[in-house]
Amino acid sequence: MKLLYSRTSPFSRKVRACAAVLGIKQRIALVEVNSTQSPRELTGTNPLGKVPTLITADGFAIFDSPVICEYLNDSSEDMPIIPASGAPRWLCLRLQAIGDGLMDAASVRRQLLVVGGLEADHPLPERQRATVMRTLDVLERERPSLHIDVGVLSIACGLGYLDFRFAGEDWRAEHPRLAEWHAAISEHDCMRSTAHGS
Fold first, then answer.
1. Are 185 and 139 in contact (CB under 8 A)?
2. For the GST N-terminal domain, which residue ranges apply (predicted)?
3. I want to staple 89 with a disulfide (CB 3.0 to 4.6 A). Which of 43, 60, 83, 170 is the partner?
4. Does CATH place domain 2-75 in 3.40.50.620?
5. Strand 2-5 to strand 53-55: parallel, antiparallel, or no bridges (unpaired)?
6. Where are the domains of the chain?
7. Is the peptide bond before 64 cis (omega within 30 degrees of 0)?
8. pLDDT for 129-181, tens place per residue?
9. Cα 82 vs. chain centroid, distance in angstroms?
């Protein structure tokens, strides 16, 4: 398998962390691409031109990160990161949606501020900031488990992306329980080995 990814993408980090937890990272060749330049290697396999994109051994392209994680989960004989059925499955997938939404809002906000050159108080980036804050408030109340699954990894990668791209904004001050949780989950090998920039 081959993973087209970016070291700065929180969604790429999530997929890499999942592969590490599932014990299959050695089966995946990492190919770093710059999606902003729309390289043919990426757009030729994923018409959306987004990372991460997984190319299976038979050349089939899988995207985006929730679908890739499902595929990796089914490809591993280790403990699954996505429960098979019932309430545990839906709780896990709900948490993944929250984490992915956090990553998406933070990514869009950064693009608007840095690439778009908008001021921080402009309505467009402010809307994304408000989404991030509402999400953090929910996670503070519903602090996730420390049991590793795809939902937990999504949240952890989302928080890590805030630290990476918005280091000057202290989300921990108003979310101490979540901060404590993030410190604990960040000690996991899968998080250490996939830190942004690595």
1. no
2. 1-80
3. 83
4. no
5. antiparallel
6. 2-75, 86-192
7. yes
8. 999 999 999 999 998 999 999 999 999 999 999 999 999 999 999 999 999 99
9. 15
